Amino acid sequence: MSARKFMLRSLPLAIAAAATSGAPAGAQDEAAASAGEVIVVTATKRETTLQDAPVSVSVFGEAYLEQNNIQEFSGFADSVPNVSAPDGLNGAGSAITIRGVTSQSRQLATAEPAAGAYLDGVYVGPRGFLDYTVFDLERIEVLRGPQGTLWGRNTAAGAVIYTSRAPTEHFEGYARAEVGNYNLRALRGAVSGPIVEDALLFRLAGVHYERDGYTDNLAGGTLGTEDQQAVRGQLEWRPGPDVSVRLIGQYLSSDSIDKAPTWYALPGQTAAPELSIGNVYGSRTAQTNVTPRENAELYSATALVDWSVGGFEFASVTGWQSTDSYGVTDDEGSAFDLAEFHFGSEGDPDNIERFSQELRVTTPLLMDRVDVTAGLYYFREDQDAESYIRVGEYVVDTFGLALPFGARALRERDRVAASTESVAFFGEANVYLSDALTLIAGWRVTDETKEFAFSTGAQFLDGDDAILLDIPFGPFTDLDTFEDTVFTGKLGLEYDVNDDVMVYATVSEGYKSGGFNRSFPQAPDALDAFFDPESVTNYEVGLRATLAGGRGSLNVTGFYLDYTDLQVDTQIITSGGQLLNQTANAAEAESYGVELEAAWRPADRLELNAALGLLHAEFTDFDPSATADYSGNALPFAPDFNASLRGRYELYSGPAGRIAVQGEWVHQTSYFAGPENAPEGEQDAASLLHARLAYTDPDERFELGLWGRNLTDEELIVDFNAQTLVNPLFAGATLYGFNAPRTWGVDLKVSF
């Protein structure tokens, strides 16, 4: 067995030793990220080092998240090769795009993401934690490419793995306060230590984050405000040297005003004044006839049990989550009384409840040749949601709708009950053909069942929204049960050129579940009820190299992905003037490119990181009956090139403490914000600049930082709706959403 594989199997001992070292955790994380030292990842469902993992993965430790003032996933996505996360409008959330494939659908309640998100090994589903502020995390791993064997459902594009900081054997804690422009106020903190020495440990962490919006609403106030708070408590019980039980409970609440689009009159065309807001007032201005907002409460409980016996490592991961939410969005984001979408209510919020159970075993080396990770997985999700679309006077007059009793507006109401049940058997085996060559074989068999039922009602309103006629909900209508059994596999070879260089080649499969169109009850004659799963095959080669005696690292990956039955969001305009979303299996697509990540420490006080992605992603076939024929078009939010250069330099290190400066430059070439590739929706090439200056006292108990993000105040298109180009209601205009402007702030961290 090679020295590399011996070190890999000895990793748990190395981790234990590192945990008791005297260096600050943050310093270790930053050093590891920049100098090619050991970075622990769980991408392969076992603790391994980044340089030994035959997958394309980027890792961001606690130090990076703090020093770059990361609040949510979209804050660091542009630092990852071939990844973007445009922050959507009107409650759509971050639409993660990995290698050209967007993970989020507008059918939020019933569609699945293409990039699964996991917190401490538990699947958290769409919107689970991606759009909420992160806190007290050990690391975030971004896996690119399908993870259909070990991680399973809905990881066709990749996976995002959040790992919270575990309880510690020694008493410690920190508090971090932050203030900034747009009235930013944030407080994060944690305390951890033993309750019973070597037997019972605890950790308690929390965050409060609020910030004003950066879009002025001409109707009053600002749009895009955030007000979030969360708490996470943990207990870790160690009844013996080979057994640990870790219990995690978390609560999160969010009361936010969503962002809204800015309307622009198109060049050379005349549009209504209400649709020329951007031309007159600029891109940070909107005008809505209703304030879009969302309230959400998330509860979760996790139990992690690890047991080692006879060289076998057994693991149980149990997760439960419940989400209550309600709110309203202004569908078109204009001053017209056109359409509003309401979901849930304060007294009767929409509810999504999830339960999952994973049982897993990792074997010791068998017959001196094979080790295996295998397991069983169960997942259950239940949804209960009520919503309505309010069609306003502008639509009634424009389309000449003849409503009873002279009604001036209409509420089309629906109630949805949906459930998903999934069972899987999975595994991955490493067969050591020689000291240097390893065969990798993985499998997953998933059986999934979905059920969907709906009920509809209506209310006809006068000009003051008083109810003239109320048609109550009728009995539930059950649609056909959606059932699917899917096999996804992985096959590859890994070769250790020497102790510092590894190369690999893999073929892997992934899939994204099918489902039901959430909008179907509103227009059953115009929309399809179902959409099928999408699938992908990924061909990948990679190189992982540790350089200059550990002072640097170089990771290079090449890939080709072939997507079939790609789920695409399309929109239709009904005879009543409603603009409705539906998901359809409308396309085949291909994506290929190269990803490079490098780290180098040329001197003890200087750390450099670089990342770049080359990408070609296009629709190879498109069903024109879905919306239009987009064959040959580029996939949305998929620039041909993106890059990140990051550096950190200690200006001073001595008896008075440390002063460090760091900066990051990120760049991307042009991209389209929609599948139609409309010229109006093309974003030109752009660069962003982030920086931070920090002082740390000699005892490393206090750190004071001054930071800025998007210092050059670049504007990027993050949302665009081409349907407005052909909708007579919006003649001569279209809408845009833009990224966050220049932000800056000051933070102070106290550790104890």
Automatic annotation (TrEMBL):
Coiled coil: none annotated. CDD domains: ligand_gated_channel. InterPro entries: Beta-barrel_TonB, Beta-barrel_TonB_sf, Plug_dom, TonB-dep_rcpt-like. Keywords: Cell outer membrane, Ion transport, Iron, Iron transport, Membrane, Signal, TonB box, Transmembrane, Transmembrane beta strand, Transport. Its main location: membrane. One of its GO terms (cellular component) is cell outer membrane. It is found in: Cell outer membrane. Residues 279-711 form the TonB-dependent receptor-like beta-barrel domain. Residues 1-27 form the signal peptide. GO terms for biological process: iron ion transport. Residues 50-159 form the TonB-dependent receptor plug domain. The keyword Membrane applies. Pfam families: Plug (PF07715), TonB_dep_Rec_b-barrel (PF00593). It is a multi-pass membrane protein. Belongs to the TonB-dependent receptor family. This is TonB-dependent receptor.
